[in-house]
Structures are given as C-alpha cells and as structure tokens.
Amino acid sequence: ARETNRLLDVGCATGEFMLVARANGWETYGVEPGAPAEVARQITGCEVHAGTLDTAPYPDASFDVVTLWDVIEHVPSPTEYMASVARLVRPGGVIGITTPNIRSVSYWALGPRWSAVGPNSHIYYFTPDTLKRLLEKSGFRLSSMHTMITPVSRLDPLPADLQLGRRLRATVSRLLRTTGRPLLLRTLFGEELVAVARRK
After folding, report:
1. Are 126 and 99 in contact (CB under 8 A)?
2. Could you tell me which of 66, 47, 49, 45 has the C-alpha nearest to residue 57?
C-alpha cells in the first residue's frame, strides 16, 4: 500500500502501534481523544490530533493506510464513521480493523459474562459477515480476515463458576489450547476479528 508513505492510527491510545509503524519507515499520525493523545505525542514524537476523527485536520485521500484497532465497536454510528475513514484513505490504500467477534465460541459459551460484552463502552458488535458488509458499504474490498484468541481469553482456563468439576474443566481447557484454538482461528470463531481491506 505504500505510495504517500503516510499512515494514520485512529484511536492510537499511547502510541505503541505508531512506534512500530515509524520503525518500519512510515510517516505516522494519530488520533486520540483526551489525555492519552499528549502521552502518545511524547512517546512517539509524531503528530497526534487530540480529539475525534470528525475534528481531525486531514485532507481527503491523504493516507496510504488507516488503522482502527478496537475502535469501531465504540462509535455511535459505524456507517457514518467508516464514511469519514474512507474519505481519508486514497484509492488503492488500505484499512486495518480489529474488533471483538460476537460469533466467537467465547460469546457462545459465556454470553453476557464474556469480558468483551460488558460492562464496557462497546456499542456495536460484529460477526465476520457484518464487518465485511460494513467495509463493502463504505467503499472497501476485503483483502483478508482472520480471528485471534486474545491474551485475556476467558476460555483458558474455563471460569470456575461454570458447573464443571475441576478435572473436567482442566481437560476441556487443555483441549481448547491444543486442538480448539487452531480450529477456531481457521473457522473465524476466535475472539477478535482482524480485517484488512483495500479502498476501491
């Protein structure tokens, strides 16, 4: 995707991904509301807009890459938000998104007890299909999608409050680690969706 060499990390927090991008030769920018924006500026030395995407001062088609790591589930209107993102990505540029997968086995097993469901600031949840539709509606063509198991997986070990004996719970947890996880990731049932799409 490298053409203008410019990358925007929306919801950059304190700038860890920006540091990685800059180390790989990208001219890196960030957007983050509140105090973390100043921390990201100090840590990375990059330009970080302290505010929202709506108030960011970037012209149309000014980035090769825009990333939204665990952002889209927090916005009041994903469709409107993605229209703002699409405006910033040049034709042929790339967007990267992560978001919790509501089709995951974790949600199936734990329901509202899954940590990605609540209580938290998540407003919307996506399946692989709904995320793909959102990207296509916003002017992107999906390049790749996979899922991840997050480090704070609630399925390994299984929560003690599930009505299983200790030995059975340990056996199921071991099966999830050795067999279940690779299968979940290949079939898009992991906890976190990861999508890369190209601007049409």
Report:
1. yes
2. 49
Q: Is 100 exposed, middle or buried (CB count within 10 Å of its CB: 0-12, 13-18, 19+)?
A: buried
Cβ neighbours of 141 (radius 10 Å): 11
Per-residue pLDDT tens over the stretch 154-182:
444 445 555 555 666 566 566 666 665 66
CA angle 72, 73, 76 (to 5 degrees): 85
Q: Which of 72, 69, 67, 66 is nearest to 89 (CA)?
A: 66
Instruction: Give the mean model confidence (pLDDT) for residues 178-196.
Output: 77
Using an 8 Å Cβ cutoff, are 89 and 29 in contact?
no
Classify 148 as helix, strand or coil.
Answer: strand
Rounded to two decimals, the pTM is 0.85
Q: Report which DSSP code applies to 14.
A: T
CA distance 76 to 157: 34
- Angle at CA of residue 53, ends 50 and 84, nearest 5°: 170
Contacts of 182 (CB under 8 A, 6+ apart): none
DSSP state of 155: T
Q: What does the pLDDT look like over 60-114, one tens digit per residue? A: 999 999 999 999 999 999 999 999 999 999 999 999 999 999 998 888 878 888 8
In the predicted model, what is the mean pLDDT of residues 178-197? Answer: 78
Provide the CA 26 distance to its chain's centre, in angstroms: 20
Q: How far apart are CA 155 and CA 149, in angstroms?
A: 10
